[in-house]
């Protein structure tokens, strides 16, 4: 991605940063279920790619205070909000935030951590133009025993056509484009790395939750 995309995100989120979490909680479904599924072992390094306001990381840090948490985002505006919220809401464990491009950021340079036991991406691939590159980079940052969790808009296959059309038009106003091939691309990248893959269609396909790990029960 380019500096132009970072500038676009800053322009869009600057007037929204204070109300983002309040307005998004009604349609960014499946985020809490994804966080609940992380279950990082003690001492694990947990990274959220495109962490936004830090809402998800704060919740995760309270659930898993024995882990270490990191968040990156391309928007400096959202990172400012994330740092403020983490300080104000008193996260369960310290969270380190850094600015970067999801497709090629240097985790060692940003965080002093080269690989992560858990990585999750929540409703971000649908906003990243080079989303497949971002997904591949996330896979590359896993430890040998690491897990990657992604939740994002699904294909809405079980929902009425009128709803799918209306949702697509609404999301386009915020530069969001559901990735209809997310499940297939995720599975292919997991398989190429010898990882097991689980696909869950949530709320009649409104959202997809994808998980890749060395082993899945």
TrEMBL record:
Signal peptide: none
Pfam families: Methyltransf_25
Record CDD domains: AdoMet_MTases (cd02440)
Keyword Transferase attached: yes
Entry keyword annotation includes Transferase: yes
Domain Methyltransferase: 46-146
Alphabetical UniProt keywords: Methyltransferase, Transferase
Protein name stated in the entry: SAM-dependent methyltransferase
Source species: Methylocystis bryophila
